[in-house]
């Protein structure tokens, strides 16, 4: 008897499984809160250079005289819809800080120190210097890590670095603690990870510099990835085949529910430290899982610990009010450890499973790249950050509900490819309203982004369960861990794409500006020495201005213009199309038992007809001798 046959007598999703499923789902809930919290804690609101020496300067204009000071000494960058945008990195160098009431702003400013109107009109000729302090818009968030540590101007990439450390930690957690669950057990691995999760989350509240923040993000990422992988694997091995697809996909709703809870917390706790602490303290409740959550009975049987597995199964049957027949514990249910030599390294001996694993790894990377690329940048969308974040969570829940009702009819593979295709095409279609539309069509960009989030959220939910069904118990957690590590690599890439576009465009602008200046200098050198000297001095100033304008324009184009909007979406969409095409080569796992060995996994085929033929062959050869696995292993 195979382990999945036990569920015919135990029940696929009885009261015992529902209780355990909810408790394990709360681990995913907590991971969703901590990962997506960076949307708020690392948010960089609108800001500008602070007025030096003015201690009570604010981003919001307090009065007409305050407005006059800002106009006089902060360069105006743009004026969109009558709303001025002032420089975030430079101020005019002729600032007289000591002239304003000893550094305090007053409604009555000594007008002797204000710049003449004629001088203001020639602002291009005034010297600009880099500012060292900033004021931030506090209308949505009173304090964030980005505003406290000033992730602005030359330090803008520090935000991406911080996110990167968390994702790198998740890669390490998936690669180390993920496979560890196959060795020491799902429960023990999960509890170790949750302990580290609590420690890192609470200590993050008092991070005072980027180095401490990065170290804690690294530790927390490691812990969350390991906890997620172990809890998900434990839940999937607890539930019977009939409800496994529903519960596997629905597990992502705990993540989305965590996002909604986070949005509610962030709305009432506008200070990042208060938010971090309030979201971290409840993690201590997971300490009760030492007594409440049992080890995976399937894993115990694989390790030959049959007495412990029997005890867990009997307890589950009692709570489910089911009677187990005596033969449940006498057949292959307790004999499976005879093929216990398989490990994740066995993939290298089986080209078919290895190719499947590589396709799965790539799809995880692409799903994560698009998911986090669209999700973590929700603060950059126009509108209220809380509403936008809430809508992304709602779209994720909607995608999950669609999957729950559609997967049983269409299967894993076809639905996964369709949703990933939908998300990818939506990202690519943003090209048209951005390049060919006007201001009235900007809403279509947000709509396409939400459709993209819907598609990729659905495909991300499916790939978790799809992976757990494709690979055998002997190294299922290990494959899930490596897959999750690939997802974190995608998340790292996503955190840098927007910033790299900005940096790249700024570099291009600087090169063009330098080229123009050098070209004109060479031309001037060809003229007579006296004339050249005069013209060179005159043109050098002109070239510097032209170069600065070009560099600024291209940099702004990359940061917030057409290039900055289109290029990331094209990257997400193109990668999604490639991943969806490769996923077509994976086998369908609908209504199939979880494979316990590589031979079981090899029976999956990429066509429904072949699957039915395999089922018939499985019945015909079910009573063959014990050397049959050696024969089937030759297919690898």
From TrEMBL:
Keywords: Membrane, Transmembrane, Transmembrane helix. The keyword ATP-binding does not apply. It is a multi-pass membrane protein. One of its GO terms (cellular component) is membrane. Pfam families: Sugar_tr. The chain crosses the membrane at residues 21-42, 161-180, 192-211, 217-239, 251-269, 275-293, 353-373, 385-408, 415-437, 443-466, 487-509, 515-535, 542-559, 565-586. Residues 623-636 have a biased composition (Polar residues). This is Organic cation transporter protein-like isoform X1. Residues 608-621 have a biased composition (Basic and acidic residues). It is found in: Membrane. Residues 96-540 form the Major facilitator superfamily (MFS) profile domain. GO terms for molecular function: transmembrane transporter activity. It comes from the Eukaryota. Residues 594-636 are annotated as: Disordered.
């Amino acid at each position: 008897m195979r382990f999945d046959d036990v569920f015919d007598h135990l029940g696929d999703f009885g009261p015992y499984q529902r209780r355990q499923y909810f408790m394990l789902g709360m681990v995913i809930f907590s991971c969703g809160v901590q990962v997506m919290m960076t949307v708020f804690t690392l948010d960089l609101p609108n800001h500008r250079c602070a007025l030096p020496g003015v201690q009570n300067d604010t981003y919001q204009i307090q009065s007409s005289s305050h407005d006059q000071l800002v106009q006089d000494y902060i360069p105006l960058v743009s004026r969109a819809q009558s709303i001025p945008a002032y420089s975030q990195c430079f101020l005019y160098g002729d600032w007289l800080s000591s002239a304003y009431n000893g550094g305090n702003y007053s409604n009555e400013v000594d007008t002797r120190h204000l710049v003449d109107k004629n001088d203001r009109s020639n602002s291009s000729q005034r010297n600009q210097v880099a500012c060292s302090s900033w004021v931030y818009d506090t209308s949505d968030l009173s304090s964030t890590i980005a505003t406290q540590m000033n992730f602005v101007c030359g330090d803008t990439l520090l935000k991406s670095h911080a996110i990167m450390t968390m994702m790198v930690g998740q890669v390490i957690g998936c690669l180390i603690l993920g496979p560890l669950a196959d060795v020491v057990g799902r429960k023990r691995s999960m509890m170790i990870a949750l302990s580290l999760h609590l420690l890192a989350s609470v200590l993050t509240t008092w991070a005072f510099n980027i180095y401490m923040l990065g170290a804690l993000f690294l530790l927390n990422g490691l812990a969350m990835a390991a906890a997620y992988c172990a809890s998900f694997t434990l839940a999937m091995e607890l539930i019977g085949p009939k409800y496994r697809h529903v519960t596997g996909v629905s597990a992502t709703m705990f993540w989305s529910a965590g996002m909604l809870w986070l949005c509610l917390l962030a709305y009432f706790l506008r200070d990042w430290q208060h938010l971090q602490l309030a979201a971290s303290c409840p993690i201590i409740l997971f300490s009760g899982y030492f007594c409440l959550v049992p080890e995976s009975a399937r894993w115990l049987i694989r390790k030959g610990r049959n007495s412990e597995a029997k005890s867990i199964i009997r307890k589950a049957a009692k709570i489910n009010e089911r009677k187990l027949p005596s033969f449940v514990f006498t057949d292959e249910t307790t004999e499976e450890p005879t093929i216990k030599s398989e490990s994740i390294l066995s993939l290298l001996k089986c080209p078919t499973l290895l190719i499947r694993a590589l396709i799965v790894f790539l799809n995880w990377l692409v799903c994560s790249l698009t998911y986090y690329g669209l999700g973590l940048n929700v603060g950059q969308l126009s509108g209220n950050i809380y509403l936008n974040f809430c809508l992304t969570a709602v779209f994720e829940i909607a995608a999950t509900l669609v999957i729950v009702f559609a997967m049983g009819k269409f299967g894993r593979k076809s639905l996964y490819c369709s949703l990933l295709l939908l998300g990818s095409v939506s990202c690519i279609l943003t090209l048209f309203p951005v390049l060919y539309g006007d201001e009235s069509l900007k809403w279509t960009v947000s709509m396409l982004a939400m459709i993209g989030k819907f598609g990729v959220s659905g495909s991300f939910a499916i790939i978790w369960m799809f992976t757990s069904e494709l690979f055998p118990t002997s190294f299922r957690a290990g494959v899930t861990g490596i897959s999750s590590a690939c997802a974190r690599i995608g998340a790292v890439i996503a955190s840098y794409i927007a910033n790299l576009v900005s940096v790249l465009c700024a570099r291009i602008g600087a090169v063009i500006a330098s080229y123009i200046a050098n070209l004109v200098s060479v031309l001037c050198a060809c003229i007579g020495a006296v004339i050249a000297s005069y013209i060179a001095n005159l043109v050098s100033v002109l070239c510097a201005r032209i170069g600065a304008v070009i560099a600024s324009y291209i940099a702004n184009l990359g940061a917030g213009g057409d290039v900055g909007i289109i290029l990331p979406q094209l990257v997400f969409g193109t990668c999604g199309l490639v991943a969806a095409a490769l996923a077509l080569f994976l086998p369908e796992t609908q209504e199939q038992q979880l494979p316990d060995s590589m031979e079981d996994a090899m029976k999956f085929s990429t066509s429904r007809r072949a699957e039915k033929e395999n089922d018939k062959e499985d019945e015909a050869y079910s009573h063959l001798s014990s050397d049959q696995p050696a024969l089937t292993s030759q297919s690898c």
